[in-house]
Amino acid sequence: MKADKILRWAYPALGVIVTFLTLVWWYWPAGHDGVDVTKHPIGRDFINNWAAPQLAFNGRLDVLFDTTGYHQAIQQLFGYPIPFHNWGYPPFTLLFFWPLGKLPYFWALALWTVLLFAAFAYVATRFVARPQRPYMVVALALSPACLMNAIGGQNGFLTGALMLGGVLAMQKRPVLGGALFGLLTWKPQLGLGLPLALLALRAWKTIAAACVVTALLIGASIAAFGIEPWRQYLGETSAYQLRLLQNFRGFFTLMMTSVLAEARAFHIPYAVAAVIQAAVSIPVALTSAWAVTRTDDVRRRAFVIASAAPLITPYAFNYDLTAVTACLIWRFLDDPPRELSWKNLVFRAGWLIPIVLMPLNLFGIGVAPAVLIAVFAVAVREAVKPPRVAAA
């Protein structure tokens, strides 16, 4: 029993350690002037969510698709120089971000972080026994994936809530599940594996609801801003993001988890890296679509879909691994490890990879895809052949 308690708190303890080390590394060298070590305002990627709607709703929508002009406009809003930023979300997201632009920056950042973590924790604990929910909330809060979202102003809480919420809801409330998947199109690269999985499950109501919600979002943005922003988003913004992968320079490369990104980190030419990515993406997408049909357990389905997502897309980051983290905690609560097996080592590696990949990538040790493939393999195996779960 004592060993069980030690193992039970091993994940949060690791989270506390990495939290402390990361905060020291991220903020201590920056002093106390509200910026991090990269000279961004605290919250970093939240800058887009706060600045873009202010520009869009004040007659400067076209600036969002001009990389130089957008960077200059952000600096004007803050009143001091900040490192380069670019806009990369579909136009309908501006309608959701609009209230954030009405608040002072740090108040908006606090609201974004706290409310979205609460929503993510709510979704993640819905299928957990009530006595275990406080532990899961603590474990989530102290996890490296959630840490990266909190200190970087990232969006993983939102994407995690939408992805897990959609999978968990679709069995009994297929329309709600589809609506959540429709909202997930604000980061379409994370949902590339969903169409095959939904088709394999013959989830027609979920598919229809996702299509309707996506159409409504696009229609609302066209009504608000016209068709031109969509032309610029699909043309110029997508082309710019492609150039980022081709050039592969900058701080963001340390945070990427995809197969293509790790291949580029080893200086493999982009064309070859894209082929390697496809060689992983296609089998993973097909395997996940097959695996979700082999189980009626919605949490095991969620584990398969969540662990497949960062392997299928070439554009995945460490802050996109929140859904994987929640699934790892589910597995730990279902069947607490009593020995250091290979599966437990895979789970621990999956737990830590959102943060350890940064120093590893810095030194050219790109192991994130290998770890995520191992996590996905365990998820598929447990969906196809569920493990024996110890009595509570």
Describe this entry's structure for a reader.
The protein has 392 residues and is mainly α. It has one domain (2-384). The chain contains 19 helices and no strands. Helix 10 runs parallel beside helix 12 (204-225). The longest helix has 22 residues, at 204-225.
Q: What value does the average pLDDT take?
A: 88
Which percent range describes the beta-strand content? under 5%
Number of helices: 19
| Rg calculated over all Cα atoms | 21 Å
**Span between termini:** 13 Å
Helix content: 55-70%
| Tertiary shape | globular
Order of helices and strands: HHHHHHHHHHHHHHHHHHH
Based on the structure, what is the oligomeric state of the protein chains?
single chain
Number of domains: 1
Structural class by SSE content: mainly alpha
Low-confidence stretches: none
Largest sheet: none
Number of strand segments: 0
Give the structure's gist in a few sentences:
With 392 residues, the protein is an all-alpha fold.
SSE blueprint:
Layout: H1 2-8, H2 10-27, H3 46-56, H4 67-78, H5 93-101, H6 105-125, H7 133-141, H8 144-152, H9 156-169, H10 174-183, H11 194-201, H12 204-225, H13 228-247, H14 259-265, H15 270-291, H16 298-312, H17 322-334, H18 342-362, H19 368-384
Helix pairs in contact: 2-18, 3-5, 6-7, 6-9, 9-10, 9-16, 10-12, 11-15, 14-15, 15-16, 16-17, 16-19, 18-19
Overview features:
single chain; 392 residues; mainly alpha; 68% helix; 0% strand
